[in-house]
C-alpha cells in the first residue's frame, strides 16, 4: 500500500500531540449514539469510529441533498450521474454502496435488486440528525454492513409545541419549501408528535456531456421531489411506550438517453412504516419489539414504446425483538430478527421473487474503570446459506478526553436478486462476499479541541463481479455475476477541530488504497486521497463559513485506463438571525466554477447560488 505517509509515524505524532495536552483535558461532550450498539450509548463509551451530523449543522449547512451533506464527512466519497435528482453512489471507506447498510429510524432501506439505497429519493427536509458508524457491523445489523452503517433519524416531538417553515430559491430555477410541527403533551399518558412535509423542484442541467456519445441530449434534466414524515409515541405507563413512524418520498427526475424528443424519466418512491413497543419488563430488562415495512419502487421510461419501460419494486418486511439486560454496569443484548424481501418487476423477469432471512444475535458491552470492552456474534440464515459474523473491541481511557481503541470484526454482503436471479446474468450458486477488518484508533476531545486518527485494514474475498466468459453453464452471452475477486480496503483517516474565539476550524483527510487484489487495480471511482477543510465565524446574529473539498484522481473503469482527474471545490455559506423566530441563509457552491467529474461523461454542478428564509417558534 502506498499512502505516501508512514502509518506508525502518523499515529505516533498524533498520540504525542494528544498526550501533550491531556493535563488540561475536560470530559468528552455528552453526545449519545444509538447506531454503534443498537442502543443509546454515551460517546465516551463508544469504541467504533463514528460521526454525528446534528440538526443545527444540517439547518445551517444549506446543503441541497443528503449526498451533498455526506460528501463533506470523513471516510465518505460520492459518485453521481448528473445533477441532484440523478443516481448517486455513496462509498464508505472505499466500500461500494451495496456494501453499506442504510437505516431510517431503525428501518433498513434499499433495493433488493441492486442492493443499494436510493440516495436521490431521500429527503433532507424531514431529517433531524444522522449517525455514521465506520467499519463492519454485520454482527449487529446482518448482511451488507461491510464498510459501515448510516442511520438517518427523522424529527421527533418533545417539549412545547413548535412550528418551522422554510422557503428557498436558487440557480437553475431551484425551489424548495418545507413545514413541520412537533411537540409533546404532559401528564401520565403523554403523547409526542412530529409531522413534516417538503417539496423541491429544479430545472437543473443536462445530465450528460457531449463526450458520452449517443446518449447525449442537450436538454435540461430536472427533478421534482415531494416528501412527508411523521412520528407519534404514547407513554402508556412508567417505562412503557408505544409508537409509530412514517416516511414517504417521491422523486420524478429526467435523464439522458439520446436526442429523442421523448421525455426520458425515472420515477422513484420510498415508503417506510413501522410500529414499536418499548417496555421496561424488569428494572434490569428493557424490551423493544418493532414491526416495519420498507418499500423501494423504481421505474424508467426511456422511450414512448412499451419496450422502453422497466420497473423494479422492492418490499422489505422486518420483525425485530431486541432485549437489553443490565448486568451491573454492563449490558447484554439479545436480538431476534426476521426479514422478508419481495420483488416485483416489469420489462424483465427474475427467476425468483422473494426470500427470507432469520437472524439471532448477542452482544456484550462493558466498562471497567478506564477499560472499555464489547463483543458481538450473529447468525444469519437465508437462501444463500448460513453466515456467522462476530466482532470484538477494546478501548482504554487515558484521561477523560483521550482514548485509544482497537477492534476486529467479520462481515458479509448477501448476493442481490440481480446477482442470483436476473436472466442471463445472475446465478443462484453465487455466494456472499466476506470481509475481515482490523483497526486501531486514537481520539482526543476536551470540548474545544478534537483530534482523531483511525487505521483500518479490511480484506474482502469472494467479490461478485461481471465475469466474461461465464464459468456457469447456460446462456450468458454478456458474462455473469461470479465470485472471483479479492479486494483490500486499507486506509488512514484523520480529523481535527478547534475552537478559537469566534472561529471554528475543522479538517479531515483520508489516505486510502481501495484495491482489487485479483487484478491489482484500484476500485472504480475511488480516490487514494480526499479531504475537507472547513472554517466558520460567528458574530452575534451572523454566522459565515467556508468549505474546501479536495479529491485525488479516480478511475472510471476496473482496468484503470480511463482516468478522472482530481479536483478542489470552494463553497461559501452564511446564516443571519433577524430575531428569535426569523433567520436567512445563503449558500454559494463551487465559487470557482470548477468543472470536474464524479462519473465519466456526466456533468457536475457549476457555480450555484441558493438563498432561503426560515421561520420558527417554540
Notes on the structure:
β17 (309-327) and β18 (330-346) form a beta hairpin. The protein has one domain (7-617): Maltoporin, Chain A (Beta Barrel). The radius of gyration is 24 Å and the shape is globular. The chain contains five helices and 35 strands. By secondary structure, the chain is mainly beta. The strands form five sheets. It has a 22-stranded antiparallel barrel. Residues 1-25 form the signal peptide. It is a multi-pass membrane protein.
Quick tags:
about 625 residues; mainly beta; Maltoporin, Chain A; 22-stranded antiparallel β-barrel; 5-stranded mixed β-sheet; 35 strands; globular; transport; Beta-barrel_TonB_sf; cell outer membrane; receptor
Measured between the Cα atoms of the first and last residue, the distance is 53 Å
Number of domains: 1
CATH superfamily membership, which one? TonB-dependent receptor, beta-barrel domain
Mean pLDDT over all positions: 90
Major sheet characteristics: 22 strands, antiparallel, barrel
State the CATH architecture: Beta Barrel
Question: Which ranges are low-confidence, i.e. pLDDT below 50, for 5 or more consecutive residues?
Answer: 4-29
Instruction: Tally the beta strands.
Output: 35
CATH top level label = Mainly Beta
Helix content: under 10%
- Helical run tally: 5
Give the structural class.
mainly beta
Q: In percent, how much strand structure appears in the residues?
A: over 45%
Round the Cα radius of gyration to an integer and report it. 24 Å
What shape does the CA trace take? globular
Q: At the third CATH level, what is the topology name?
A: Maltoporin, Chain A
Amino acid at each position: 500500500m502506498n499512502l505516501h505517509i508512514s502509518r506508525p509515524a502518523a499515529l505516533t505524532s498524533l498520540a504525542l500531540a494528544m498526550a501533550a495536552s491531556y493535563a488540561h483535558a475536560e470530559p468528552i461532550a455528552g453526545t449519545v449514539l444509538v447506531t454503534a450498539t443498537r442502543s443509546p450509548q454515551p460517546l465516551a463509551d463508544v469504541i467504533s469510529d463514528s460521526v454525528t451530523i446534528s440538526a443545527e449543522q444540517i439547518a445551517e449547512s444549506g446543503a441541497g441533498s443528503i449526498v451533498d451533506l455526506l460528501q463533506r464527512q470523513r471516510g465518505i466519497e460520492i459518485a453521481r450521474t448528473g445533477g441532484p435528482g440523478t443516481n448517486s453512489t455513496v462509498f464508505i471507506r472505499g466500500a461500494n454502496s451495496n456494501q453499506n447498510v442504510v437505516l431510517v429510524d431503525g428501518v433498513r432501506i434499499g433495493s433488493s435488486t441492486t442492493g443499494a439505497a436510493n440516495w436521490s429519493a431521500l429527503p433532507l427536509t424531514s431529517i433531524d440528525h444522522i449517525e455514521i458508524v465506520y467499519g463492519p457491523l454485520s454482527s449487529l445489523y446482518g448482511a451488507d454492513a461491510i464498510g459501515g452503517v448510516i442511520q438517518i433519524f427523522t424529527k421527533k416531538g418533545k417539549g412545547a409545541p413548535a412550528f418551522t417553515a422554510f422557503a428557498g430559491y436558487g440557480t437553475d430555477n431551484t425551489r424548495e419549501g418545507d413545514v413541520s410541527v412537533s411537540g409533546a403533551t404532559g401528564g401520565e399518558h403523554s403523547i409526542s408528535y412530529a409531522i413534516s412535509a417538503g417539496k423541491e423542484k429544479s430545472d437543473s442541467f443536462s445530465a450528460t456531456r457531449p463526450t458520452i456519445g449517443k446518449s447525449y441530449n442537450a436538454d435540461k434534466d430536472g427533478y421534482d421531489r415531494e416528501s412527508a414524515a411523521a412520528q407519534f409515541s404514547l407513554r402508556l405507563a412508567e417505562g412503557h411506550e408505544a409508537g409509530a413512524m412514517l416516511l414517504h418520498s417521491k422523486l420524478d427526475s429526467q435523464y439522458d438517453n439520446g436526442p429523442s424528443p421523448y421525455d426520458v424519466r425515472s420515477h422513484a418512491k420510498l415508503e417506510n412504516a413501522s410500529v414499536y413497543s418499548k417496555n421496561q419488563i424488569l428494572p434490569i430488562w428493557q424490551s423493544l419489539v418493532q414491526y416495519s415495512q420498507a418499500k423501494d419502487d423504481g421505474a424508467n421510461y426511456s422511450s414512448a414504446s412499451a419496450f422502453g419501460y422497466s420497473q423494479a419494486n422492492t418490499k422489505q418486511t422486518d420483525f425485530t425483538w431486541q432485549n437489553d439486560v443490565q448486568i451491573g454496569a454492563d449490558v447484554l443484548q439479545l436480538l431476534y430478527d426476521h426479514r422478508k424481501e419481495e420483488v416485483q418487476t416489469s420489462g424483465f423477469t427474475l427467476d425468483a421473487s422473494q426470500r427470507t432471512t432469520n437472524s439471532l444475535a448477542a452482544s456484550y458491552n462493558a466498562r471497567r474503570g478506564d477499560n472499555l470492552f464489547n463483543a458481538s456474534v450473529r447468525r444469519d440464515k437465508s437462501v444463500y446459506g448460513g453466515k456467522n459474523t462476530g466482532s470484538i473491541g477494546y478501548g482504554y481511557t487515558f484521561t477523560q478526553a483521550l482514548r485509544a481503541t482497537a477492534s476486529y470484526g467479520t462481515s458479509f454482503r448477501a448476493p442481490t436478486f440481480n446477482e442470483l436471479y436476473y436472466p442471463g446474468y445472475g446465478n443462484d450458486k453465487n455466494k456472499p462476499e466476506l470481509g475481515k477488518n482490523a483497526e486501531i484508533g486514537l481520539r482526543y476531545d476536551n470540548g474545544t479541541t478534537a483530534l482523531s486518527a483511525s487505521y483500518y485494514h479490511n480484506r474482502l474475498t469472494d467479490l461478485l463481479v461481471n465475469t466474461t466468459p461465464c464459468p456457469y453453464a447456460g446462456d450468458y452471452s454478456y458474462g455473469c455475476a461470479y465470485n472471483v475477486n479479492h479486494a483490500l480496503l486499507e486506509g488512514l483517516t484523520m480529523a481535527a477541530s478547534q475552537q478559537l474565539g469566534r472561529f471554528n476550524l475543522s479538517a479531515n483527510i483520508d489516505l486510502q488504497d481501495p484495491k482489487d487484489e485479483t487484478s491489482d487495480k484500484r476500485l472504480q471511482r475511488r480516490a487514494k486521497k480526499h479531504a475537507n477543510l472547513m472554517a466558520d465565524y460567528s458574530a452575534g446574529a451572523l454566522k459565515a463559513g467556508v468549505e474546501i473539498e479536495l479529491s485525488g484522481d479516480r478511475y472510471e473503469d476496473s482496468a484503470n485506463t480511463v482516468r478522472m482527474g482530481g479536483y478542489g471545490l470552494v463553497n461559501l455559506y452564511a446564516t443571519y438571525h433577524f430575531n428569535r423566530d426569523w433567520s436567512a441563509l445563503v449558500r454559494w457552491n463551487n465559487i470557482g466554477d470548477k468543472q470536474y467529474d464524479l462519473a465519466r461523461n456526466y456533468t457536475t454542478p457549476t457555480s450555484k447560488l441558493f438563498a432561503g428564509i426560515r421561520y420558527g417558534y417554540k
